[in-house]
Amino acid sequence: MSFGHPLVLIPAVLFTAAAVAGYVLLQRRRTAALAAVGFGRLAGGGIRRHLPYVLLLAALPILLTGLARPSAELSVPHVSGTVILAFDVSNSMKATDVTPSRLGAAQTAAKQFVEGQPDSVDIGVLLFGDQALLTQAPTDDRPATQAAIDRATTSGGTSLGQAILVGLGAVTGKPVSLPTGGDADPDTAAPANELGYWPSATIVIFSDGQETGGPDVTQAAELAAGAGVRVQTVGVGTAKGATVEVDGYQLGTALDESLLTMVAQTTGGTYQQAGNTQALVDTTRSIDLRLTTRTEPIELTAPFAAAALLLLAIGSLLNTRWHGRIV
Predict the structure, then answer these.
(1) DSSP label of 213
(2) Contact between residue 177 and residue 165 where contact means Cβ atoms under 8 Å apart
(3) Which end of the chain is more exposed for a tag (fewer CB within 10 A), N or C?
């Protein structure tokens, strides 16, 4: 427990001690006076005589302690943390098997997701193709987040691994890369120990799952899992697919769920598939944020005051009932 005005406790202790000493002195004088006139047997008075005053004296230090603004650190459960919305902006996201397009549908769903989050959740925006770029750092400024989502446009290929690494960088506040010294040896993954542990952070990836290159996706997902960051994946598109025009060529593209499922499962997240705009909106509503606890200072002035007033009320009531007076 801590106090906003700890110096108040000094006069509070002195005043309480003086009040107790004064009461004891008065009782001794009363006892002596009664004994002098032959009523020594009435000097004690029993519990009825002393209990009301004991309650009143007990209320005094509690009330004075409340004036010192006491507070305690309590663990308060709440939905909070950081969410990074990562949008695949590769050329395949121009496909119209989801209306108005895969990217357009993802943007619509993501904006509705943003609107539904509490202020305690900071949301960032990341766009990834061959490379990944954080276009909005995590913030509770919802208009800024919405504007960043609207700025997404399509071009290039797809690197899910790069998206995860840049997303981890946005969460941890430091550049993140895959460990060097060997692709298959997990013991070389020193960066995982340097990232810390971020269980209240989530990366949500909107993609059609068609990887074209970049850092190893499996290693990137394992790095996220080691840092406690869950990756939720949302498949945008249909298995039937569509064609898109790239540099004058017609290319077929379809939703590939296998890679997106692997990424989610590796990090403890879930994969959701959405085949149309409304389904995608419903999918983002099902993305669960973690219920976490954080330590918050809770001021205890009111409880102290309430306890003191309760003792004062009981003491006064007993004094009135047993002795016909309040004091």
Answers:
(1) S
(2) yes
(3) N
Per-residue model confidence as pLDDT tens digits over 111-166: 988 888 878 789 999 999 999 999 999 999 999 999 999 999 998 889 999 999 99
Q: Are 225 and 191 in contact (CB under 8 A)?
A: no
The Cα angle at residue 115 between residues 150 and 275, in degrees rounded to 5: 65
* Element spanning 304, H or E: helix 301-323
CATH of domain 81-288: 3.40.50.410
Contacts of 92 (CB under 8 A, 6+ apart): 102, 158, 208, 210, 237, 244, 251, 253
pTM (predicted TM-score): 0.64
pLDDT single digits (tens) 11-64? 777 877 887 787 777 767 766 665 666 554 544 556 666 677 777 778 778 877
What are the domain boundaries of the chain? 2-73+298-323, 81-288
